[in-house]
Every structure is written in C-alpha cells, then in structure tokens.
Specification:
It is a single chain. By secondary structure, the protein is an alpha/beta fold. The protein is built from 9 helices and 6 strands. It folds into 2 domains: 38 residues, no CATH class; 194 residues, Rossmann fold (3-Layer(aba) Sandwich). The protein is 35% helix and 14% strand. It has a 4-stranded parallel β-sheet, sandwiched between helices. Strand 5, helix 9 and strand 6 form a beta-alpha-beta unit. Helix 5 crosses helix 7. Bound molecules: zinc ion (ZN) (2 copies). One zinc ion binds next to helix 3.
C-alpha cells in the first residue's frame, strides 16, 4: 500500500470508484481487497475485560487487575494503528460514512457468538461538540449494529454533561479525573443489559465512567463494543 492520505481524500471525492487508501481501481467497496486484508486486526492475547493487547496469555491486564472498570467485557475488531486510524479519523471527522461497513463488519462477525444485550447505548458527545461536528460517530455505529443485529438503540438515555477538556496529552490518571461525573443516564437503562458502543477505546476512562453512570442508574450489566483498541503504549 503506498498512500498519501490527503491525496486519497482527494481521489475519494473525485473518483469514488477508487480505493480510499491506495487509489487502486475498486468497483464497489471504498477499499480495495488488498488494503482491506492488510488492516490491523486485534488478535489474541488480549485482556478479557478491556481488550488491550497483552504480551503473554494472562487473562487480564495489570490496569484491570488493579482497578477493575465498571464494564465487564470488551469486544473489539481492530488495533488502532496505521492505516486503520486514518479510516476512523475520516469517518469520525470528515463525513466519510461509506467507510462504516468496512470498519464495522469485522466487529459484527465477532459479536455473533456473544450474549445479546437488551439495548445498545452509544458513547454520547457533549452537545457543544455535537454541534461542531454535526454527528456522533458512535451513534452511527450503534445504528448500523442495531440494523444488522435487530437490537434497539437508546439514543438519548445518556448525556455527557461536562464539556471535558481535550484528552490528548493527559496522563491516565488525569484522564480519569477529567471524566469523573461527566455522564448522566436516565432510568430507562434500569435492569437492562447494556452494550456500550464507541469507535475507539484509548485509556478506557470514558467507557469506565459511562459504564459507572449506567450502573448507578440501575443497568444490570455493561459490556463494551468498539471498533478499535489502542496499543498499550498509547494508553
Ligand atoms: Zn487499496
Ligand atoms: Zn484490561
């Protein structure tokens, strides 16, 4: 794959029959077969709780052993690494919605043998950020999974009540404190088994604090369904 992302965006917009990453001829999908096959799948061994890649076959990562998060289990399809990160960025910030099925189908495959939740809850954006971006990529992903799996989405059950400062550049503990009490959830989640849907899990703090808010509102269990997990050294 030779690629220049700026050029790829340009090609994608001008000639939609070309691969988003390498601009090779590509009749239907936004990515050619070669680029799809080279995308970085998340493979075992991974932590049973947060899906972070592990160096050995331990069941849990050190972070989950020391501080068990409020969610129980995480299913993820991809490593958040090049060039998958480019695809997620384009889907998340640049309206490249045709990439969603490419990103989500491998997650769907991994969810087939998972116990079905009662409802899907997308990671909410703060209202201010939603106005800036125009859409919530986690909601789009949840709606895609909802259609494929015939599960309901609780679109407005949870809100991000604090416009938290940018997480990038903060340490793990700073991120955790930054997000404490950032979410509130309605009573509609009571006694429900929840699948929390998001595009990327980095530190896991957002997922932890949303899961905690869901549990505080009476949810019976929370699992995370995410597209991509960051490598441990990025957390
Ligand atoms: Zn390609
Ligand atoms: Zn873990």
């Amino acid at each position: 794959m030779s690629l220049n992302f700026t050029n790829s965006l340009f090609f994608r917009q001008k000639w939609p029959q070309q691969c988003f990453l390498c601009a090779a001829a590509c009749r239907h999908d936004p990515l050619c077969v070669a680029c799809q096959q080279e995308l970085p799948r998340l493979t075992a061994p991974i932590c049973a709780v947060c899906a972070t890649p592990l160096a050995d076959n331990a069941a849990l990562c050190g972070a989950c052993l020391r501080h068990p998060p409020a969610f129980t289990h995480t299913v993820a399809a991809w490593q958040y690494a090049w060039p998958l990160d480019r695809l997620i960025h384009a889907f998340k910030f640049h309206h490249q919605f045709s990439l969603l099925p490419v990103l989500a189908k491998p997650l769907l495959d991994r969810l087939r043998d998972q116990p079905a939740p009662d409802v899907l809850v997308p990671m909410p954006l703060h209202a201010q950020r939603l106005r800036q971006r125009g859409y919530n990529q986690a909601l789009l992903l949840a709606q895609y999974l909802s259609r494929q799996m015939n599960l309901p989405v609780l679109k407005t059950a949870c809100q991000r009540t604090r416009h938290t400062t940018e997480q990038t550049g903060l340490s793990r503990s700073e991120r955790a404190n930054n997000l404490r009490h950032a979410f509130i959830c309605a009573a509609t989640v009571r006694d429900r088994r929840i699948a929390l849907v998001d595009d990327v899990m980095t530190s896991g703090s957002s997922a932890h604090w949303l899961a905690q808010a869901l549990r505080d509102a009476g949810a019976s269990s929370v699992n995370c369904w995410i597209l991509a997990r960051t490598p441990p050294n990025d957390a």
